[in-house]
Amino acid sequence: MLRSGGDFLYADFRFRDQIDEWQSAIDDAALEVAEVNDISAEVLCRMDMNGERSLALVERCLPRFFQDSGRGFAGVPGTRVGDALASGELAYRSWHFRKR
């Protein structure tokens, strides 16, 4: 439960073909949008900076049959998520909501 005047922070990503539905859900939320930012460039920069570390963690911590999924989830450069973010096919945004 969020009290009146309370803040809720949210960040997530969607592929281009999902953005209209995503925005519609945001618009229907019973919260006031205090701020929204496209953080795609910042996330991509950090994913690139952490790529080797993320890859090492995936290889060390996941069984081999889960590693492809793990690399994609971590956004390791060269994966669908990383490439889509770089091309603009994927949007990563953050919202600051406030309960009315």
Any chance you could write out the topology, listing elements then pairs?
Blueprint lengths: L6 E9 L3 H10 L3 E7 L1 H22 L5 H8 L5 H8 L2 E9 L2
Antiparallel strand pairs: 1-3, 2-3
Report what the structure shows:
With 100 residues, this protein is an alpha+beta fold. It has helices at 19-28, 40-61, 67-74, 80-87, and strands at 7-15, 32-38, 90-98. It has a 3-stranded antiparallel β-sheet. The chain is elongated, with a radius of gyration of 16 Å. The two termini are 13 Å apart.
How many β strands by DSSP? 3
The whole-angstrom Rg is 16 Å
Q: How far apart, in Å, are the first and last alpha carbons?
A: 13 Å
- Estimate the global geometry from the Cα principal axes: elongated
The helix/strand order is: EHEHHHE
Mean pLDDT across every amino acid position: 93
Summing up helix and strand content along with how strands pair, one would put the structural category as alpha+beta
Helix content: 40-55%
Count of individual helical segments: 4
Strand residues, percent: 25-35%
Biggest pleated-sheet summary: 3 strands, antiparallel
Q: Strand order, main sheet: write it out.
A: 1-3-2
Poorly predicted regions are none
